[in-house]
Amino acid sequence: MRYRYTAEDEAFREEVRRFIQENLDPELKRKVELGLRLDRADYVKWYNRLYERGWATPNWPKEYGGPGWTHLQRHIFDEECQLAGAPRIIPSGINMLGPVLMAFGTPAQKERYLPAIQRSEIWWGQGFSEPESGSDLASLRTTAVRDGDHYIVNGHKIWTSYAHFCEMLFCLVRTDPNAAKPQEGISFLLIDAKSPGVTIRPIRMLDGGVDLNEVFLDNVRVPVENLVGEENKGWSYGKYLLGHERTGIAGIGSCKQQLARARKLAATQRAGDSTLLGDPAIRMRLAELEAELLALECMGLRILSENQDLHTPGVEASILKVAGTELRQRIYELLLDIAGPQALPFSEEAVQTGLDPALPVEELYAAVAANTLDVRKVSIYGGTNEIQRNLIARAVLA
């Protein structure tokens, strides 16, 4: 199967490339390409450039300040940004909450929050998972009890990405504990992360980073106006949001970026009189991964071409999520094998930043081990791949 881009698509690709070349800070590009950890200021620096160009929210329609791109243009934009070493779009506000507010939010919520998301003034954390409610999200126990014009929220969320960066949280909470089905008693609330009773506790991960957090909610007062949609209908809004999240997790552009990184590392790693790029076993693994990546991209493009007007991702999102995340993990495993002992961090600073100035280690290898550990999570978040396989089976085999 062959896909051909139109002349207009290729012209758009060149426009994106020129923009990145002219606007991406070289030091930021270096950090991304080496897999080093970025802070909020790094992301905002890039997002501000995108906002000035009108590209900060690539998946938003024009009526809400987005560029109004087609699905294929968004694919090209994501691919070129990843290949050029630009920071990825943190999805919580832009790719996840934004579409939910557009579809179900009140006019006041849209006016207040959508422009602030575009300008990177408000960052959002996703309060879905709980210590005993991950894959079985409908069993969540965080409660919201109506008290006049407020809800009183109590509970414990976990694995909240970048919560320590965020001003706001969007949470699924239980508003009707007596509902006939667990899914029918859940609502979707917007919570100020600075409210009294909100405690954010970073979780130290295997790679040494603290991207994930626990969030404790103790008698937090949330205005009723922060309810999205109807009370007890939050499960439907959550499913809508997760469909958008899973589509992005496939990470086709990221796979291309990291496979190119693997080739570069293999070409620099000596093996006898040659390099690892000349090793038949490494070449075979590279070829296998490139073939799988081509198949993943073809699947993604076919879905885009057949569903240009589809705004609610279906089972296709689950298929892309499973295939893309597992391919990314295999690419990082190859990166680790190529780097060998040079990928090992030996100090607390190396664990936290991926760099240890006391070690005579090539800069290219600095963060390989940390990146490989970090990518283990992609098959878990957005709904574990085991759950996605169940969804796929029910949709395809039923």
Describe this structure in words.
The chain is of the alpha+beta class and 398 residues long. Helices cover 48% and strands 14% of the residues. It contains 13 helices and ten strands. Helix 5 (91-104) runs antiparallel to helix 6. Residues 350-361 have low confidence and may be disordered.
Topology:
Elements: H1 7-23, H2 26-33, H3 40-53, H4 71-84, H5 91-104, H6 107-118, E1 124-127, E2 143-147, E3 150-157, E4 168-174, E5 186-192, E6 198-203, E7 212-223, E8 227-228, H7 234-249, H8 252-268, E9 270-271, E10 274-275, H9 280-306, H10 315-339, H11 348-353, H12 368-374, H13 385-397
Parallel strand pairs: 1-4
Antiparallel strand pairs: 2-3, 3-7, 4-5, 5-8, 6-7, 9-10
Which features characterize this protein?
398 residues; Butyryl-CoA Dehydrogenase, subunit A, domain 2; single chain; globular; alpha+beta; 13 helices; Butyryl-CoA Dehydrogenase, subunit A, domain 3
